Amino acid sequence: MSMSSVTTTLWEERQQAFVERLGRGGGLGLDNGTMVVIPSLSFSMAELAKITGVVRYEERLLYMLLQLREPGLRMIYVTSLPIDAAIIEYYLRFLPNPDDARRRLQLLSIHDPEVMPLTQKLLRRGDALTRLRTLAGDPDDAYVISFNVTDHEQALAESLGLPLYGAPPNLAWLGSKTGSKRSARQAGTRVLEGTEDLWSLRDIERGMESIRAHAPHAEAVVVKLNYGFAGQGNAIVELESPVRPLAESRTVFCAPNENWTSFEAKIQADGAIVEELVRREEMVSPSVQLRVVPGAPVEILSTHDQILSGPESQVYFGCRFPADPSYRLVIQEAAIKVAEVLAGHGVIGIFGIDFLVAPGRRGNAVYVSEINLRMGGTTHPFWMARLATEGVYDRASGELVAPSGPKRYVATDNLHEEGLVGTTPQQVIDAIDEAGLGFNAETRTGAALHMLGALGAYGKMGVTCIADSLAEADALYDAVVATCRALGSD
Q1: For the chain, give me the number of helices (H) and strands (E)?
Q2: Sign of dihedral through CA atoms 95, 96, 99, 104?
Q3: Could you tell me if residue 428 is inside a domain?
């Protein structure tokens, strides 16, 4: 037997023991030992290149620093580029004992600005892997947690000899657009008219013809790359009769610089789906965030109304919490059905399910749109709000209930002001504090900032505006934008 197969076998045993320990803990078990955070966005480099300041998106998992409230937890946070010290101090101030938390936090940067998933960078850096093994210490008391899990994350975990928290990479297809539709059907939930598992432009054209036959009212379709990210892998095609070849069809790509030549290569590489585009002003796209741990019931973490932008509102911009009460509990129940199917396949960890809801006189028509088998745009806002307010999610009402009462928030990763280019995180933190907009530990309301590392080069940041009502959260967001704009104009 080769040395690599021995190592893999030992890792698999350690991984199984970790999963069993999670199950015995009823979903707990992540608040002790050493958490190695690898905030790698492991998608194709072509998709990553579409996102402004994508390397700084590794800072979206910094909400995890608030978990250092647990005295038995150590944390190693790894990034491509160093994190400004002011950002770390900003997060630690949300804790009751920042000094103690600071002693249990280790930051590791590999000083690599290349647009490439962090995990892939680490796998080619033997020095960084050696440093990580040393910092992690006892492999039976440490584990890796990542933004999403692919073969690269498993290879990294094996190299470190540490178990990995997340769905096994051989299940990643369940989070593809094709896998999403099939899992939804298996769960008995509705999906829009369309066809999945397509691998060529001719396949797409046949799918369009099928939609025309089964939904003659359809005006347009959406072609979605199986592993597109935040709507950037979508293309809208007008559905004319008879259906025309794609090269001649009126098409709008949701990401700049795309065309059918570049899109075809991606379809051939990873596959795609095509589905009806529903053009109704009242159509909304809420999402549900869940957690699955072996041996425990599916846990609902949150519901959100997504804030969408771009062509035909296909691109994720931000979110509001909680989702509208008219369908909040309905999408929760649909999400549980889908999550139980995923759990049956062996999925564990945190993931999200997006829906489309069409209000009507006879009630809401609810469709599963896609499964994001990973953390997503709503992950940081929810956990930041939950940990900062010390709130508990009430599944019966869909509310985040803090000691001072239910909380609402509006959040985005895309607060972008050209005037902020060249500013420092500390300048923005100070401006928000001086305006009286910062988070208040007594009222458990205020603005919680994130992704501040993208300010200097891109004038871009994120914010979660927490309040007692959505109207107050919206007003707080407007005040934060005005404050940032004023700072940028100085």
Answers
A1: 15, 20
A2: negative
A3: yes
Is there a single domain that holds both residue 100 and residue 223?
Answer: no
| 49 and 158 both lie in a single domain | yes
In which domain, by residue range, is 111 found?
3-166
Q: Which of 277, 294, 322 is the last residue of a domain?
A: 277
Place of tokens 């504090």: 433
| Cα dihedral 38, 41, 43, 48 sign | negative
Same domain (yes/no): 152, 236? no
- Please report whether residue 176 resides in a domain: no
Classify residue 298 by its DSSP letter: -
Mean pLDDT of the chain: 91
Whole-structure pTM value: 0.90
117/10 same-domain check? yes
Confidence tier at 8 by pLDDT (50, 70, 90): low
Task: Confirm if 58 and 80 have CB atoms less than 8 A apart.
Answer: yes
Residue 103 has pLDDT above 70, yes or no: yes
Band (pLDDT 50/70/90 cuts) for residue 29 is low
Write the pLDDT tens digit of every residue in 379-388.
999 999 999 9
Kindly report which listed range (153-157, 250-254, 311-315, 483-487) carries the lowest average pLDDT score.
311-315
> Average of pLDDT values for 356-363?
76
Same domain, 375 and 460: yes
Residue 264 lies in a domain: yes
Q: Which of 263-277, 363-377, 426-440 bottoms out in mean pLDDT, i.e. has the lowest?
A: 363-377
Q: Is the same domain home to 270 and 290?
A: no
248/233 Cα distance (integer angstroms): 20
Domain boundary among 147, 166, 185: 166
In angstroms, rounded to a whole number, what is the distance separating the alpha carbons of residues 251 and 93?
Answer: 48
For 153, the token pair is: 């994350």
Residue 355 CB-density burial (10 A; 0-12 exposed, 13-18 middle, 19+ buried) = buried
